[in-house]
Amino acid sequence: MSDLGALPVQAYLTACLLAGVIGLWLGRVAWRERDQPGGLEVALYLLCGGGISLLYALRIAASGEVAMRVALNLATPLVGALPVLWILFALAFTGHDRWRTENRIVALATPAFVWVLLAWSSATHRLARGPVTPVVDGPFTLLGYGLGPVGGAYVLLAFALCVAGALLVVDLYERTGNRYRLQTFVVLLGTLFPFLAGVATFVDVGSYAHLSWLPTAFVVHGVFLYGTVFWLGTLDAAVVARDTAVEVMQDPVIVSGSDGRIRDLNPAAETILPSDAVGSSLSEVFPRLETGVEHPIAIGDRQFDIQENPITDPRGTDRGHVFLLRDVTARERRQTELERREAELERQNERLEEFAGVVSHDLRNPLAAASAAVELARQRGEDPDGALDRAANAHERMDDMIEGLLALATAGETVDELDRVSLDGTVRRVWSRLETGEATLRVEGDATALADRDRLEQLLSNLFRNAIEHGGDDVRVTVSVAVEADGVAVAVGDDGPGIPPDERERVTERGVSLGGGTGLGLAIVGDIVEAHGWTLSVGESDAGGARFVVGGMEVADP
Questions:
Q1: Cis-peptide into 296, omega within 30 deg
Q2: Domain boundaries for CATH 1.20.1070.10 within the chain
Q3: Which of 42, 87, 93, 445 has the fewest CB neighbours in a 10 Å radius?
Q4: Could you give phi then psi for residue 417, rounded to 5 degrees?
Q5: Residue 535: its pLDDT value, please?
Q6: What is the pLDDT of residue 423?
Q7: Domain 335-411 = CATH 1.10.8
Q8: What kind of architecture, by CATH, is found in domain 245-327?
Q9: How many angstroms separate the CA atoms of 528 and 224, rounded?
């Protein structure tokens, strides 16, 4: 072993004592904050390193062999614990807490425990250490000993654990963001000291072959770990969050630690929060961003839904929270516009209902009186030129218009309840209620569908009236019922003159009449179809007349 130079006894003792005091003091400070991820391991590492350094100083300064042997034996379990504490810290620091199970911790600690027991009893078997004898090395009197087979194996295991921990940190350095590369770099820099000291210990360099710099190097390493955990801030929540919220996410991601402070922001979040948000209290930077907040929330001119997920370690300890903000600005604008349109539609429906009431009450009463007067005059034979007949026809037309307006007022209302309807029976029942003259009906097929019974009958009645009005009293109407992939389809065709192709798309518009009608019958059909969520197509029948196909009716369960 070597010291890398010839130093006075006082200088080397001072370095060991100072390192020991610093290690024990920082270890005590870290112990009070051991709930931080990796904090417990750092506290124990510093306490062990400080203890080793002080005991090593005692070995150098002691004049008796007994005192040196006691110091050596007291330092042995502390030395055995350091590699285990380092790998446990590396796992916690890099976000691999799931690997820190009780069984694995016991497996890691068992070799160290066995080595300590064998080292203490090496005088009887020499498995861990060779013969321990005082060695005079310049101004120093040290205990010299070789390594037994178990001791050599444990040294290799200790170096393997140190290398494994370092590789975990290197991997974290490569995959984490630039903000956290400082922490990983500091940890790696501190790890160099015990590695270099270990090499200098086992390779004879310098003037004193039995002098070791490892005790001091352990404390220096612990100081670097302390600075990373308690000054720079560990990656705790941020490391775990990076696995689910990568830098390229379009949605803002905010990560807070268990202390309520912001630990990380992805680029999307940086655009909506202050530049100094990282490290600040979450409640100060963004008071509304907390568990239980009502959604959505407004940030500037944008709206966000918040998904909050806790970060816990395998022991259930709270390590922080991840807040995922989803931009719902467009959705909220659409919702606002929809609500505005619904309100406007409701106002229009209210006005339409008022209008329908006025039509029903204020127009029907005088119309009934006029119709009665015309009929009385006709009975008295006071219609030499047919004027009364024309008046009666006008009254009948006005009555049809009133009926159409009243039906139109309710045709497009939302369908709340659906009835099981036999289409064959409904078609024949509606046809039987109409004045069909010489017109004929043929029904092909049958099915049971779900529909508002009254409005379905209104739809069929209007289609039949349209066929008779335009096809003549002897028109032949064919109704076909078929079950298709998207539901039941009902087709109503006739052998009338048909509808020109350029007029088929507008025949269901209000006020559009191709043959002198009111222009409301087919508009009511369109509203009823829309209210049910069905489809309506207009085409040409096999007989050359008009053909209306109502599709998408839901099939009723048997």
A1: yes
A2: 9-234
A3: 445
A4: -125, 140
A5: 93
A6: 95
A7: no
A8: 2-Layer Sandwich (3.30)
A9: 77
